[in-house]
Design a protein that fits this description.
Elements (H helix, E strand, L loop, with lengths): L3 H4 E8 L2 E8 L17 H6 L33 H24 L40 H14 L7 E6 L2 H15 L4 E5 L4 H9 L4 E4 L9 H10 L5 E6 L11 H10 L7 E6 L24 E5 L11 E6 H4 L4 E3 L4 E3 L9 H38 L4 E3 L5 E5 L4 H6 L3 E3 L2 E5 L6 H18 L11 H4 L7 H6 L1
Parallel strand pairs: 4-5, 4-6, 6-7, 7-8
Antiparallel strand pairs: 1-2, 3-9, 8-9, 10-11, 12-13, 13-15, 14-15
């Protein structure tokens, strides 16, 4: 091994009367101390490890601090210990798999379809698949899955009624990226435009406004969670001199409410906005793929004056990694697209590098299920959602279910341990269960039985009352003592 004396050889030379070090690089030299020293734990970890006086760490929302971790340790220089290292890692992974299996049993509050089997794709995990740049233009990087990506995009183009030569899109790394891209296209089409979004829109919409330094108007909502077009009209008329960029929710985050796309368009027209003065992005993260199969549902289609649609791939579709699909009109994309010599391609995406495995998973499940398969799963979800809502109401628990939704909103459980066990998403006095294809009636029954039993303990002495949800879901859906007496 070459020591540090061989790494740097210093010679002095006079430059303008000053001594200057001439450092020569030795490519054969080895850094003697490869592993950095272990950083001492501070704050919560220090208190746990006995590392001195406890320093309080800021707690987000007052709970859910994560303090455990699986340490990364350097392998020993002795090759004979490699087997022990492999055995240790195997045991850690085995325990982690058991944890995943257990937590999956109690997964209700987040919109992920956990019912999938992609065993046929394990043969592809050994490849580094990266869909760099534009999906429709070949790059110099040959290990890609563009042929699958474009096939998936064409499938969604048919679903949303736009011809192959009229759309552009790509498979995103998550639903938020789809929203960021849709809003960005709107901003590029109308640089001076104002972004309008209901207050119950996904937080990524307001993140986009901050990132792009856009003027943003939050629009009020109805009790259902839908955009209030009366308030929308007031805000449009107050800014009539500027183009409008609108986010339309195809299923809001908490209540699963679907904005009335036709009414949004009519409101724009009534306020004097011609079709060349507004851009509509449809955030269909969860319900964008469910809506086409729901009777009486407003149709999301590019035959209407919309600019883009995005949907998540890891939600209703059931992809095992976060991903999404974003489609926009081809005529809009030139404002974003630029040549990249390094790739021998063009790029109009947000991230550039994209998960090349995601298109394979999406292509596989779309081929297996098709339109008819998704229709059956939508019907199952809606049926089970109504079952859950009816049982909640029957047990005297406040609950609401929008007509076009599989998201059941109900009274927030009093015990946070119960919330964490069932992985419920909560806001104010509300919690919700998102009924996905992987949520069975048996799972709902187990949840309901535990909830009813737990409530009998939480509220047994009468000193503590269940919360009133009238202001959140309407008095007719509220089963608090006050509104139960009225009804």
């Amino acid at each position: 091994m070459v020591g540090t004396s061989a790494v740097i050889e210093s010679m002095s030379s006079a430059v303008n009367g000053k001594e200057v070090a001439d450092v020569r690089f030795d490519p054969t030299a080895v850094v003697p101390e490869l592993v950095p020293a272990v950083v001492k734990s501070e704050g919560v970890d220090a208190a746990v490890n006995g590392g001195g006086e406890e320093q309080k760490r800021e707690i987000v929302l007052g709970r859910n601090i994560h303090t455990s971790s699986f340490s990364v340790t350097e392998p020993d220089a002795d090759d004979d210990s490699t087997g022990d290292k492999e055995a240790y890692m195997a045991s850690v992974l085995a325990r982690y798999r058991k944890t995943l299996t257990d937590r999956t049993k109690y997964h209700l509050g987040y919109p992920y379809n956990l019912d999938f089997d992609y065993g046929a794709l394990t043969q592809l995990q050994h490849f580094s698949i990266n869909n760099l740049g534009d999906p429709f233009i070949e790059s110099n990087y040959g290990v890609h899955s563009r042929q699958f990506e474009v096939g998936v995009l064409d499938w969604f183009a048919r679903l949303w009624d736009i011809e192959k030569d009229e759309y552009w899109g790509y498979i995103t790394n998550c639903g938020t990226e789809g929203n960021l891209h849709g809003i960005l296209v709107g901003r590029e089409v109308f640089p001076e435009g104002i972004l309008y979004a209901s207050k119950e829109s996904h937080y990524s919409i307001f993140k986009a406004a901050r990132m792009y330094r856009m003027e943003c108007e939050q629009v009020g909502t109805l009790l259902t969670g839908e955009i209030d077009c009366a308030d929308f009209k007031v805000k449009l008329l107050a800014n009539k001199d500027k183009p409008a960029i609108i986010n339309v929710n195809i299923g809001t985050t908490v209540k699963g409410a679907v904005d009335d796309l036709d009414l949004v368009i009519k409101t724009l027209e009534d306020c004097g906005f011609s079709h060349d003065r507004f851009y509509i992005h449809c955030d269909g993260a969860l319900f964008g793929l469910m809506m086409p199969f729901v009777k009486r549902a407003p149709k999301v289609t590019f035959k209407k004056p919309i600019g883009s649609v995005s949907v998540s791939g890891h939600k209703f579709v059931g992809c095992p990694m976060p991903c999404g699909v974003q489609l926009t009109r081809l005529k809009h994309i030139n404002a974003l697209s630029s040549n990249v010599e390094y790739l021998a391609s063009r790029d109009a995406t947000i991230m550039g590098s994209r998960n090349g495995h995601a298109p394979l998973f999406l292509w596989y499940t779309l081929n297996r299920k098709g339109y008819k398969g998704f229709q059956k799963e939508v019907q199952k979800c809606l049926r089970n959602a109504h079952y859950l809502k009816d049982r909640l109401i029957g047990a005297g628990i406040s609950a609401m279910l929008n007509e076009l939704s599989s998201t059941v909103v109900f009274e927030r459980p009093k015990d946070e341990e119960f919330v964490r066990k069932w992985q419920l998403a909560c806001e104010r006095n509300m919690a919700h269960v998102v009924v996905m294809p992987s949520v069975t009636v048996d799972k709902l029954d187990n949840f309901l039985d535990e909830l009813v039993e737990a409530r009998s303990i939480w509220y047994k002495d009468g000193d503590v009352k269940p919360p009133c949800l009238a202001s959140d879901i309407g008095s007719k859906n509220c089963c608090c003592p006050q509104h139960r007496m009225i009804s």
